[in-house]
Design a protein that fits this description.
Shape: extended
Structural class: mainly alpha
Order of helices and strands: EEEHEHEEHHHHHHHHEHHHHHH
Radius of gyration: 36 Å
Strand content: 5-15%
Number of helices: 16
Strand order of the largest sheet: 5-4-6-7
Number of strands: 7
Helix content: 55-70%
Largest sheet: 4 strands, parallel
Length: about 525
């Protein structure tokens, strides 16, 4: 048998053996490993280069925005109230209480900027527009006369604010469960919103995103219980009752919550919410979400803006915050509007037959639908309003007394409405005690997701402490002056009464002496 010796012919990196045919050879193992490592190294370098390039781009975008934002700040006395008061209402901080129980007591309705809590639909150059209260973020300042505007806000502990945002989203969405299905609820809401001239919760950021999302989820879970025949809920933790409502841990990790709820206070003060008027806000926010390190620039801007505000309150320090608001903001509003009243400017505006916005806009929103309240009537909160024209003799004390009465009625109405809503998702019932059941893992996750808000809240507490001390010192100085005036008046009074008492004493002595002398004369006459 003849055999032909095999001849290996090298072709590039591939060795071809004629006995096995072309293409059935094999690569040298060492060379194969070297090529693989080379390719992996090239891919690693490419990815890192791309990442570094993207980070560099984002860093430039965020830095440019931060520099531009800080450059625009007005360098004037922040302690003096200007012509327009912009209440930047961060959701779930108690701002509605201040709006209805403080500001409505101070400002005439004609001085409110039209459609508060909605997109800007007024000319801010109008002198009648003195008050703007809205959930819009700080980018609203681009629409306002910056040099004539004072900003105030209230901050809340970030963990509590996340809880409250979750609870309120569920509460409002639960009101729609009176309808048989989601389609019916959506259609009814659309019809009612087209008929009313007021602003509903579904028109307001961020609830116009959070409530429909939660509403759809509630209907979905209710249908799921019907289909499975599950009516007994096993869990006693309302924050983890997945048969009835979206669990809290699922809520905080959802993309919608990531975009709107977490670090919401910082983004709102910075003007970077998804409701922002700034053209570059989306790109800046996207870069900060992608590269957490860039959040320090957003925090820097937010802190500077808090520094420049007329007033910064804290939800947790309710009594001190309310007192400070009355003394810092309320007192200046009273003085400012008295001056305008004396010139006849405000009275002329009030006498106009056409108001700057519909009457229904001046009422608190009905949290969506009038028919969604337990009795099918308009929300009772409206009854707590007083129209709020400042009186000529109003004092800060009068304002605080009116605030106390108003907040009591407001809270009762809110409690009744909340109780009626939560009955529709029973046994889920959100309370402070129930919050204690939430695991430390979830609480820690909330903190991590709101790291910017935690830093900003800590900074706001320092500002609040300084404001509080200044208010106490100012009040103390005023009290000292008042006491000195009283002491001065009292001292002058003492001198006056001393003189009077001496004169009276002399008159009495002379009178007694005169009576005594006359008596002696009569006695002598009788003896004679």
């Amino acid at each position: 048998m003849n055999t032909t010796p095999s001849i290996s012919i090298p072709v590039g990196f591939l060795y071809i053996d004629p006995s096995v045919g072309v293409g059935r050879g094999c690569m040298d193992p060492t060379l194969k490993l070297s090529i693989l490592l080379l390719l992996l190294g090239f891919a690693y370098v490419s990815v890192n280069a791309s990442t570094f390039k993207n980070y560099g781009h984002c860093e430039r975008v965020v830095k440019r925005w931060a520099f531009s934002s800080l450059e625009q700040e007005v360098k004037e006395d922040k302690h003096t109230l200007r012509d327009l008061l912009f209440f930047l209402h961060i959701p779930r901080t108690g701002g509605r209480t201040y709006f209805h129980c403080f500001l409505r007591k101070l400002y005439y309705s004609s001085l409110e900027c039209p459609r508060s809590y909605d997109k800007l639909r007024f000319d801010p150059r109008k002198k009648q527009c003195r008050l703007l209260v809205t959930h819009d973020d700080y980018s609203m300042m681009s629409k306002l006369p910056r040099e004539r505007t004072s900003v105030v806000t209230i901050l809340r502990d970030p963990v509590d604010r996340v809880f409250s945002s979750y609870e309120f989203s569920v509460e409002v969405a639960a009101r729609f469960l009176v309808h048989p299905n989601l389609t019916s609820a959506t259609q009814m809401a659309r019809r009612m919103r087209s008929k009313t001239k007021g602003v509903s919760t579904l028109d307001i950021w961020p609830w116009k995103y959070l409530v429909p999302w939660m509403r759809e989820d509630l209907f979905s879970r209710r249908e799921g219980r019907k289909l499975s025949g599950t009516f007994d809920v096993q869990s006693d933790d309302p924050y983890n009752m997945e048969e009835v409502v979206m669990p809290l841990h699922e809520y905080i990790n959802h993309p919608i919550a990531q975009d709107i709820v977490h670090n919401g206070a910082t983004l709102q003060v910075a003007g970077l919410t998804n409701n922002s008027y700034q053209a570059d806000s989306h790109e800046v926010r996207h870069c900060v979400e992608k590269y957490k390190l860039l959040g320090k620039y957003v925090l820097q801007v937010a802190k500077k803006r808090l520094d420049d505000m007329l007033y910064v309150g804290l939800t947790e320090e309710h009594r001190e915050s309310a007192t400070m608001f009355a003394n810092v903001v309320g007192a200046q509003v009273i003085a400012q509007l008295r001056g305008s009243n004396s010139s006849g400017e405000i009275n002329a505006a009030n006498n106009k037959s056409e108001q700057s916005y519909p009457v229904s806009d001046s009422k608190p929103n009905n949290d969506d639908l009038q028919s969604s309240t337990p009795d099918g009537k308009e929300s009772e909160i409206a009854s707590t309003e007083t129209g709020g024209a400042v009186k000529e003799n109003m004092t800060v004390g009068d304002l605080m007394e009116a605030y106390g009465d108003c907040i009591s009625s407001l809270r009762k109405a809110q409690t009744r409405r909340r109780t009626a809503s939560l009955k529709r998702i029973s046994p889920a019932n959100f309370t402070k005690e129930a919050r204690l059941q939430v695991s430390e893992v979830v609480l820690e996750q909330i903190k991590q997701l709101n790291h910017l808000d935690l830093e900003l809240y800590k900074y706001a507490k320092d500002i609040f402490a300084k404001q509080h001390n200044n208010t106490v010192q100012t009040s103390g100085s005023s009290q000292d002056r008042w006491e000195r005036m009283l002491q001065s008046s009292y001292g002058t009074g003492i001198m006056f009464w001393k003189v009077v008492s001496v004169c009276v004493t002399l008159v009495l002595i002379l009178s007694v002496f005169f009576v005594f002398v006359n008596a002696q004369r009569r006695t002598l006459k009788i003896k004679l």
